[in-house]
Amino acid sequence: MGFLTLEQAQGAVNAALGRSKELGTKMNIAIVDAGANLTAFAREDGAWLGSIDIAVKKARTARFFDMPTGEIGKLSQPGGSLYNIEHSNAGLITFPGGIPLKNAEGDVVGAIGVSGSTVENDHTVADAGASTVK
Fold this sequence. Notes:
Blueprint: H1 6-23, E1 28-33, E2 38-43, H2 50-65, H3 69-75, E3 98-102, E4 108-115, H4 119-130
Antiparallel strand pairs: 1-2, 1-4, 3-4
């Protein structure tokens, strides 16, 4: 099992910022390590203050369950196997924008969480950051 370096975390933030700029959005971008500890963060000028906490919680949620937050959201709908899970762990976020980060061996070494636009844009920006971690 590997670990997430600061250089990797910052690289993921920079890639996500680049994609956000391409989309014309203003995002908050959080990177957590394998222990769900905040490792890197960026808030674009003018990004919503309320999205800071959401970005961090998306990253933590993706790491806690090692799956994209959008997938957890599908499982947490009424009648789903994870219904009401968002109330655990001091609050989780179960909509798109959080993605686990994996190294070249496929080990989860952390996660990225993005918030500040539509959930589709949040996921796209998170994916851009996640794709840089190898």
